[in-house]
Every structure is written in structure tokens, then in C-alpha cells.
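Exercise: predict the fold of this chain.
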Amino acid sequence: MKIILSSRRHHYVARVSIFLVTVALVVGMVGCFQPPPFHKLTITSGAGGSVTTPGEGNFTYVNGEMVNLLAEAEEGYRFAEWTGDVGTIADVEAATTTINMSGDCSITAEFAKQYDLTINSTAGGSVTTPGEGTSTYDEGTVVNLAAEAEEGYCFVEWTGDVSTIADVYAAATTITMSSNYSITANFVTVYDLTIASTAGGSVTTPGEGTFTYDEGTIVSLVAEAEGGYRFVEWTGDVGTIADVEAATTTITMSGDCSITAEFVKQYDLTISSTAGGSVTTPGEGTSTYDEGTIVSLAAEAEEDYRFVEWTGTVSTIADIYAAATTITMHGNYSITANFAVEP
């Protein structure tokens, strides 16, 4: 009997012990369990668009969760980038991307305003950079411009919406995009002006040689004679020269032109007379004449005198014994009308 009671007591104690151990293990396991941490994601957007996935505001996610992001730009804008706590964003420059939630994050979708640049050109050339047509750029972009003229033309200027063009007269320049712009590269026909001169002077303005000018340009001309010469006239393609006989004048460029400044040698004629008369034509003293000029001479005797002859440098006088004759100017001459008392 005692043996039976002792055996039952032993089994009961063992069962209680096992139960207590089980309870202790369960309590221990429950005490070790920790729920996963959560992180807050704050999303905003700049002007020009919004975040449609997951939206804007504050969101809570489990640690390590991959969250899809989708930003959509409004018309006239484009998505630029994600800013803020972007360390776990897969691609900060992609409007559609993901973020890994490993901590609290605050991010912003940034958008850029865009403008259209429309470029064209007149006859005689083209815009090679960035090309012609319409292109779209972010606000503030500095766009390089390059215009190239065809043969026989030259670039003149940019026209249109040119307020932000660095230099409207430069074929290679820039434009800064702060609005929608339409610009035109303007070209003009160019012509060659070839200038020369004869002996006895030169063209000082614009010089001698070949020069290129835009169609319609009014070019100043100045010819200067050397000592002993004088300017005579402009010859050649003189149809648009204002005054062909003026040393200082202008020419209007309406085609290729070749002109020459003509100069002539000049000589002095000194005339005097003896007692008993005078030279009435051209008068007495020193006068200057172009080479080759035929000068009329007339000598008149006083009462009781008669004209005798011309003396001095008389080789080109037509008749040295005639009171009315001529002299041809081929050098500097000094002549005298000689008179004698009537017998």
C-alpha cells in the first residue's frame, strides 16, 4: 500500500515540474518577442508637379519596406530630381523609383519650368547650333547659338526675342532661357570693293586693295594727291559714287565694284613782260596747270609799243612771234612777253 502511494506522488510531482518548466519557457519566449520598428516617410513637392504615388503627406512603413514613388509634372514643367533624405532612393533623377525605409525620411519632388526656343534664319545662311526649329529647355539654361553664312553672305544680327542674347551682333553667342523665345539669324549679301590709284596719289580711306561690305553699305572714299599732282576723278564702276570728281566722297555697295582714283601731274607757268605792254591772258604771275593743258596766251602792247616775241621756256609755244598764241604744259615754264618801241 505504501509503495503504491509513493509511486503516485512521484508521478504527480514530475507532471507539475514539467508544467512549470513549460510555463517558464512560454513566458520567456513571450518576453523575448519584439514587434518590428516602423518609420515615417514625409513627402512634399515643389512648384510644377506633385507626387501621385504614394501621395503627399506623412506615411508610416515597416523597417526595410520598399516604397514605390511616382512624381508627375504639370504642363510646361518636367521632373528634375528628389531632394532631402535621398540616401535609399534607387534613382534620385527618375520620376518613377523606390525608397527603402530604413529610417524616418523627408523627401521632396523637384520640378523645373521649361520654355520653348524657336530658331529660324533668313536667306544666306543657317543656324548650326543648336539648329533650327523648336527646342525645349529648363528655365535658366544658357543655350549656345552659332550662325553660319553661305558664300557671298555674312551674318548681320539676331532679331526677335533677343533680350537675353549676350551679343545680338555676334554669330556665335548665347541666349538665357527665361521665357518662350523666337529668334532669327539675319544674313545679308556682301560685295567686294576693289580700289586702286594711278601715279601721283593714293586712296587713304578705306585704303587700296579689296574690301568686303554688306549690301547697301555706304563706304567713305578719300583720295590724297602727292606734291605736284592733283586728284582728277574716280573711274571704273562709279555708278553709285556720289561725286566722281570729288576726292572725298562715298560709294554705295550694290554689287562688286572696282574703282580707281585718277591723279594728274601739274606744272607751273610763270609769265612776265617787258616794258611797253602786258600779258592779258592768262595774266602775269604764276599759275598751275595740269600736264598737257593748252594755255591761251595774249599779249597787248601799250601805245607807241609793239609786241616782238615770247622768250624763255618757249619750246611748246605754238608761235613765239604771235601776240595771241598757246603754250602746252609739259613742264614748269617761265616765259616773257617782249615789247619794243614803235620805230
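Check your answer against the key: The first helix runs from residue 2 to 32.
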